[in-house]
Specification:
globular; 65% helix; two-stranded antiparallel ribbon; mainly alpha; binds benzoyl coenzyme A; 2% strand
Length: 335
C-alpha cells in the first residue's frame, strides 16, 4: 500500500483545509530525515497497522517465550543456574510488557491483543514452538535464540516509531546478558564430560536451523520487508540479518568447540562472509500454520495462565475503583 492511501483516526479532527496533504508531507519529511514519529503525531493508517502487527507479535513472542525456559526452572542443575534462569524469564515478561505498552500507544488495547493470542489468531515467533528436552537447550536458547534476537533487535532501537525504539534499547541490554549466560552454559558443558559435550552438540543441532528461521522467510518471500524498510521500522532485510548472525556465530562456535550443523558453511573470501546451506522452509511454514511440536501446548498454557490470573485483574480493577471513588469523594468535599 502506498503512503498516500493511509488515513488515521483523528486525521479529520486535526486537518484544517488541505491539512491532510500537509500531514502526509510532514510524515514523509520525518521519514526522509530519519526522524521519529511519536504517538501524538499524525501517521498513515498502514504505518500504524504495520507497527501494531510487528510490535504485538514481538510482545507475544516474549510472553510465549517464557514457557520453553520456564520448563527448566524447577530442574536447573544448581541454585545459581536456577536464580539466573528465573531472572531471565522475568526479563522476558518485562519485555512483553514494554512491548504491549508500545502497541497500546497506537490505539490497540491490551485485552484485544491477549484475546488474539489465546485464541490462536496472533502470530508469535516460530522458535517457541520447539520442545526443550535437555538442560543444554537452556544454553542453546541463550546462545542461538537470544543471539538471533540481538542481531534482529539492535537495529530496531533505531525504529522510526519512538516508543518501540526506546523499548528496544532496554530490551537489547537485557538480551546481551541472556546471550552470554547461554554461551556460558554451553561452555561449561563443553568443558565437562563426554556425555555433557554430546548433550550440548545434540541441542545445538536441533536449535540452529530454527534460530536462523527467526529472521523470517528469505527476502524474495518476505511480503512486509520492503515497506517496513521504507518506513525505517526494519533497517535490514531478513537475509542480511541472517547472514550477520552466521558470521557472528562461526567464531563463537570455534571457541565453544561446537560444530554448527551445516556442512555448507564456508568462508567466502570475495564476500568476506560465510556461505551457508539451505534451510528447511517447509518446516517453517508448518510451524507458522500451527503444526509445530508445541504450538497447541504453548497456547493452551497461555490460556490457562490468563484465566488463572483473572483474580489479579479483578483485584486491580477493584483497587482502581476504590481509588477513583476516594478521589471523587475528596473532590466533592472541597467543592
Ligand atoms: N515466526 O514479511 P515477513 C525473542 C511471519 S522474541 C513467526 O518477512 P516481517 C525472545 C511474519 O510475521 C523474538 N512468524 O515479516 C523472547 C509475516 O506474517 P504476517 C521475536 C514469522 O514482519 C523470549 C510473514 O511471516 N522477535 O527474541 O517483515 C526469549 C512474512 O514475513 C517469522 C521479533 O518479533 C517467525 N520467525 O519480518 C528469548 C522481532 N518470521 O504478520 C528470545 C521483531 C516471519 O504478515 N519482528 N514471520 O501475517 C521483526 O523483526 C519482524 O517482524 C520479523 C519478520 C523479522 C520477525
Amino acid at each position: 500500500m502506498s503512503l498516500a492511501e493511509g488515513t488515521a483516526p483523528g486525521r479529520m479532527d486535526r486537518g484544517a483545509a488541505g491539512g491532510d496533504d500537509a500531514e502526509m508531507a510532514r510524515f514523509d519529511e520525518i521519514m526522509a530525515a530519519d526522524g521519529r514519529i511519536e504517538p501524538t503525531d499524525w501517521m498513515p493508517d498502514a504505518y500504524r497497522r504495520a507497527l501494531v502487527r510487528q510490535i504485538s507479535q514481538h510482545a507475544h513472542s516474549e510472553i510465549i517465550g517464557m514457557q520453553p525456559e520456564g520448563n527448566w526452572i524447577g530442574r536447573a542443575p544448581s541454585l545459581k543456574r536456577k536464580a539466573i534462569l528465573m531472572a531471565k524469564v522475568q526479563d522476558e515478561a518485562g519485555h512483553g510488557l514494554y512491548l504491549y505498552s508500545a502497541a497500546q500507544t497506537l490505539g490497540t488495547d491490551r485485552d484485544t491483543m491477549f484475546e488474539q493470542l489465546i485464541t490462536g489468531k496472533a502470530r508469535y515467533s516460530s522458535i517457541f514452538n520447539y520442545f526443550t528436552p535437555t538442560w543444554a537447550d537452556m544454553g542453546s536458547i541463550g546462545w542461538l535464540v537470544d543471539g538471533a534476537a540481538i542481531c534482529n533487535q539492535v537495529p530496531l532501537c533505531r525504529a522510526s516509531y519512538g516508543p518501540y525504539g526506546r523499548a528496544m534499547v532496554r530490551i537489547c541490554k537485557e538480551e546481551s546478558f541472556h546471550q552470554r549466560q547461554g554461551f556460558e552454559i554451553l561452555l561449561a558443558l563443553m568443558r565437562g564430560t563426554d556425555a555433557q559435550r554430546e548433550m550440548a552438540q545434540e541441542s545445538v543441532n536441533r536449535w540452529y536451523g530454527p534460530a536462523l528461521m527467526m529472521f523470517g522467510p528469505p527476502d524474495a518471500d518476505s511480503p512486509n520487508s520492503q515497506q517496513s524498510m521504507a518506513w525505517n521500522i526494519k533497517r535490514f532485510s531478513n537475509d542480511e540479518l541472517r547472514q550477520r548472525f552466521v558470521d557472528m556465530l562461526v567464531p563463537q562456535a570455534e571457541v565453544l568447540g561446537i560444530t554448527l550443523p551445516d556442512p555448507a558453511i564456508a568462508w567466502n573470501e570475495e564476500r568476506q562472509s560465510y556461505d551457508l546451506g539451505d534451510l528447511d522452509w517447509t518446516e517453517f511454514h508448518e510451524v507458522l500454520a500451527g503444526r509445530g511440536q508445541a504450538n497447541a501446548e504453548r497456547i493452551e498454557r497461555r490460556r490457562e495462565a490468563h484465566e488463572g490470573g483473572e483474580w489479579v485483574r479483578e483485584a486491580a480493577r477493584a483497587y482502581a475503583r476504590k481509588q477513583a471513588e476516594a478521589a471523587d469523594a475528596a473532590e466533592a468535599q472541597v467543592a
